[in-house]
Amino acid sequence: MSSVLRDPAGGAPAALSVTCPEPVVRPVMVQRWNDVVFVNWRFEPAAVQRLLPTGVEVDTFDGDAWVSLVPFHMDGLGLPGLAPLPRVGSFPEVNVRTYVRAGRRRGVWFFSLDVDRLLPALTARAAYSLPYCSGDAHHGRAGDVLTSSVDRRWPRSSSPSSTRIAVRTGAPIDPAEPLTAFLTARWGLVSAARSGRLRYAPVDHGPWPLHAAELLHLDDELVTEAGLPTPTGDPVVMWSPGVDVRVGLPRRLED
Q1: Can you tell me the distance from the alpha carbon of 175 to that of 2, in angstroms, rounded to the nearest whole number?
Q2: Is the alpha carbon torsion for 205, 109, 210, 104 positive or negative?
Q3: If DSSP codes are grouped into helix, strand and coil, which group holds residue 223?
Q4: 45 and 66 in contact (C-beta within 8 Å)?
Q5: Which among 101, 119, 166, 201 is most buried, taking Cβ atoms within 10 Å?
Q6: 96: burial class by Cβ within 10 Å (0-12, 13-18, 19+)?
Q7: Are the CB atoms for 52 and 65 separated by under 8 Å?
Q8: Parallel, antiparallel, or unpaired for β 145-154 and 105-115?
Q9: Is 134 helix (H, G, I), strand (E, B) or coil?
Q10: 159: exposed, middle or buried (C-beta count within 10 Å: 0-12, 13-18, 19+)?
């Protein structure tokens, strides 16, 4: 059962910090995100806001909303203090996300999360109200080049749902640079239960070790499948070798 997180009405959203401002003391899940790629585009705020539920507002940077395509490899998924879950504790993932405010909370809103395991997809949908999908997925690195792919099988759609991505990693960058922090320094996720009630799950990890990256190839349908317009302009691309993550219990957001 979710606990309740009360945010004073009219309170200002918390400022972004490259270190977790509220460490998760009692995690319900631990994991590691490896070889994380961020492919980020500017969007008109209205194009993103129309896809968000009441009570969730798109967060903006210099007047623009941002949508990110994020491939990585999940490893060590399990319960605190125990060995990673057998057979389902390691898998590739590609998600489509944006950045939002809900009350005083600033976090991530997921449009989709594609993995190659059906059980984690079903579990995350039930426990965290997240739009996980399953199918054929790959994420790997050879030298300084990372490649990712997804072919969604479930839930089925009348339109194609796939992606092909290749990036080359580059030099380190400052995680505290304002746009970089806006896109990566997020310490929780916002979701909506079937009832429509909003929930917030805190996420705790060390500061991101970040590098610039070059987009070598992109053939994507996941962003438009989410209901968003086709991205335009050159994306901002970053890579991280990864972080160890602690996830807290989802909490109900109340005004």
Answers
A1: 32
A2: negative
A3: helix
A4: no
A5: 201
A6: buried
A7: no
A8: unpaired
A9: strand
A10: exposed
Instruction: Return d(Cα 27, Cα 190) in angstroms, integer.
Output: 17
Hey, where are the domains in the chain? Answer: 30-250
pLDDT reported for residue 119: 81
Rounded average pLDDT per 10-residue block, the chain, 255 residues? 35 78 94 98 98 97 98 93 78 97 95 90 85 95 98 87 98 97 97 91 97 98 97 98 96 77
CA gap 255, 177 in Å, rounded: 32
Report pLDDT for 13. 64
Report the C-alpha gap between 21 and 15 in whole angstroms: 9
Predicted structure pTM score: 0.92
Task: Please state the separation of Cα 220 from the chain's center in Å.
Answer: 17
Integer angstrom CA distances of residue 86 from 33, 79, 135, 137:
17, 12, 19, 19
Pick the CATH number of 30-250 from 3.90.550.10, 2.40.400.10, 3.30.420.10, 3.40.50.300: 2.40.400.10
Tell which phi-psi region holds residue 58, choosing left (phi > 0), alpha (psi between -120 and 50) or beta. beta
The residues near 245 (Cβ < 8 Å, ≥ 6 apart) are 30, 31, 32, 33, 203, 204, 205
Which of 240, 243, 231, 241 has its CA nearest to residue 40? 231
Is residue 98 a contact partner of residue 48, using CB atoms and an 8 Å limit? yes
Q: What is the pLDDT of residue 127?
A: 82
